[in-house]
Design brief:
Structural class: mainly alpha
Organism: Vitis vinifera
Main location: membrane
Pfam families: FA_desaturase
Low-confidence stretches: 6-19
Oligomer: single chain
Protein name: Delta(12)-fatty-acid desaturase FAD2
Mean pLDDT: 94
Radius of gyration: 21 Å
Keywords: Lipid metabolism, Membrane, Oxidoreductase, Transmembrane, Transmembrane helix
Strand content: under 5%
Length: 382
């Protein structure tokens, strides 16, 4: 079974190049969303306040413990060891805080509890603490779920056709160019998306997640965009006061570098979920919601699957049923796989290898011509 096709477990043997680029089915499936839902045990859709909060408490406890160790003991270490300890702290804290980000993401989908006000309150606090405009992202991300796989209306990582690539693209299609592109994408990609809609859907005018009157939002959503901005500004001011009190270096070491890890993982996770040589994209002549939702890829991040609350390896189920709590997503995925059959997409390639491969293979999309004119596939030949 090919790495981009129908694996239900990580590959145990090296696959051929033909296997790697095996295309996913793109015709209208014979099953319906209702049939998929019936295959999932009913309890998987039940949201528990206590269960959800247990993950918040667990993540914040680990984050607090790491903070306590770093701020109370690192300065006691000999200089060579302290220089090693801080990057280890950044990596561990960044992973834990990515889990916090995922819980806030769950709040945005109303998958945290049965109470919308509680979901929004928890989500606003957690996302603001990570400098994410909660409501702004919630609404744009909802539209991503409503238009996944659409070349015209999807909100994030929308691939370009060859004719719409920048003139510089062919000069970046080499190892050095890919390294530079990935470095910028993983370090600056998230703030560039929020501020300038980089890699997002094309709008008729400037689009920014911090602009309540921008084209991303409707009139009824604008007040909540102001609230999101206020949350981010409050945290930014708090960081400023900390920098004045403890120094900019302290803030960068304790908060800034872990946040960079969070942003990098967020971009990487989203990129790999929606970018793969076997995944189709559709124009308006072919797109429908179910096929678009199925045009996504489950991945394997090893132990980080658990740390990231399985947003990595249950993403297909998440796109089909976004209000499903993450703690039931593994069971739900197992239940729908027999119904999905070949439509279920999983790639067990280690994420660091997959990142490089997708950057190499997935440069632009094009259709096969008259055979399937509205279906587009990744290509890399200039």
């Amino acid at each position: 079974m090919g790495a981009g096709g129908r694996m239900s477990a990580p590959p145990s043997a090296k696959k051929s190049e033909a296997d790697i680029v095996q295309r996913a089915p793109h015709s209208k499936p014979q099953f319906t969303l209702s049939q998929l839902k019936k295959a999932i045990p009913p309890h998987c859709f039940q949201r528990s306040v206590l269960h959800s909060f247990s993950y918040v408490i667990s993540d914040l406890t680990w984050a607090s413990l790491l903070y306590y160790i770093a701020t109370n003991y690192f300065h006691l270490l000999p200089h060579p060891l302290s220089y090693l300890a801080w990057p280890i702290y950044w990596a561990f804290q960044g992973c834990i805080l990515t889990g916090v980000w995922v819980i806030a993401h769950e709040c945005g989908h109303h998958a945290f509890s049965d109470y919308q006000w509680l979901d929004d309150t928890v989500g606003l606090i957690l996302h603001s603490s990570l400098l994410v405009p909660y409501f702004s992202w919630k609404y744009s991300h909802r539209r991503h779920h409503s238009n996944t796989g659409s070349l015209e209306k999807d909100e994030v990582f929308v691939p370009k056709t060859k004719s719409k690539l920048g003139w510089y693209s062919k000069y970046l299609n080499n190892p050095l160019g890919r390294f530079v592109t990935l470095t910028i994408q993983l370090t600056l990609g998230w703030p560039l998306y929020l501020m300038f809609n980089v890699s997002g859907r094309r709008y008729s005018r400037f689009a920014c997640h911090f602009d309540p009157h921008g084209p991303i939002y409707s009139d009824r959503e604008r007040l909540q965009i102001y609230i999101s901005d206020a949350g981010v500004l409050a945290i930014t001011y708090g960081l400023y006061r900390l920098a004045v009190s403890k120094g900019l270096t302290w803030v960068l070491c304790v908060y800034g570098c872990p946040l960079l890890i969070v942003n990098g993982f967020l971009v990487l996770i989203t990129y790999l979920q929606h970018t793969h040589p076997s995944l189709p994209h559709y124009d308006s002549s072919e797109w429908d919601w179910l096929r678009g939702a199925l045009a996504t890829m489950d991945r394997d991040y090893g132990i980080l699957n658990k740390v990231f609350h399985h947003i990595t390896d249950t993403h297909v189920a998440h796109h089909l049923f976004s209000t499903l709590p993450h703690y039931h997503a593994m069971e739900a995925t197992k239940a729908i796989k027999p119904v999905l059959g070949d439509y279920y997409q999983f790639d067990g390639t280690p994420f660091y290898k997959a990142m490089w491969r997708e950057a190499k293979e997935c440069v632009y999309v094009q259709s096969d011509g008259d055979k399937s004119k509205g279906v587009f596939w990744y290509q890399n030949k200039f």
